[in-house]
TrEMBL record:
Gene3D superfamilies: 3.40.630.30
PANTHER family, per database record: RIBOSOMAL-PROTEIN-SERINE ACETYLTRANSFERASE
Record's protein name: GNAT family protein
All copies of domain N-acetyltransferase, residue ranges: 16-187
InterPro entries: Acyl_CoA_acyltransferase (IPR016181), GNAT_dom (IPR000182), Ribosomal_N-acetyltransferase (IPR051908)
């Protein structure tokens, strides 16, 4: 058994290559973060991590990913896929499972560097992890959420067949902010018109579905 079961896992769409984060790729990811993910007057994330001082953003991002890697275990995992276009990291797509063997449920989160937004890549990368979750892990449902002032994320969810599932309120930058909760089941998934290529999943299954 490989000491790091995610080492060979790869998801491939017509344009994108998604692989669990590694230190070399994280260096590219940090460059994207420093280039900017969203306008300074907006905050699309429930955790305001991009508000950190610029000289802390890089090390914060690295420490977060290292911490997530260290906590992988059957029944509670989060895979941060680095998304590559033409061999270069352009963003991140996360897939999370808690008590997956019982609930059959996953959740997702993602972001793209600003220069890669508005090209349909966000839809393509989320569709990739949904196909992976439903077809290779046997997921029953997938959940997501987005602030009501984040139309791009909400549009991706609509395209893929998510339906509203209530709302939640939190404090964002010291003010009240509302998120729309979303849920998607296997039957409601609006599948892409392309086939997902998946390799290296066998060594991961005990961790992802156990």
């Amino acid at each position: 058994m490989d000491a790091w079961p995610y080492r060979h896992l790869a998801l491939r769409t017509p344009r994108l290559d998604l692989r669990p984060d590694d230190d070399e790729g994280l260096g590219e990811l940090v460059d994207l973060v420093l280039d900017g993910i969203h306008p300074p007057d907006e905050m699309p994330f429930g955790v305001e991590w991009t508000d950190a001082p610029r000289d802390r953003l890089g090390i914060n991002a690295l420490q977060y990913h290292w911490a997530v890697r260290s906590e992988q275990r059957p029944g509670r995992w989060a895979v941060n896929f680095l998304v590559r276009l033409d061999g270069r990291v352009i963003g991140e797509q996360t897939l999370v499972g808690h008590d997956f063997s019982v609930t059959g449920e996953v959740s997702t989160g993602s972001w793209l560097g600003r220069r890669h937004q508005g090209q349909g890549l966000g839809t393509e990368m989320r569709a990739a992890v949904l196909v992976f979750a439903f077809d290779h892990l046997g997921a029953r449902t997938a959940r997501s959420s987005a602030f009501v002032d984040n139309p791009a994320s909400l549009a991706v969810s609509r395209k893929l067949g998510y339906r509203p599932d209530g709302s939640l309120v939190q404090v964002r930058r010291g003010a009240r902010a509302e998120q729309t909760r979303l849920v998607l089941d296997r039957e409601g998934f609006r599948r892409p018109d392309w086939e997902l290529s998946v390799t290296g999943v066998t060594d991961c299954l005990w961790l992802l579905t156990g």
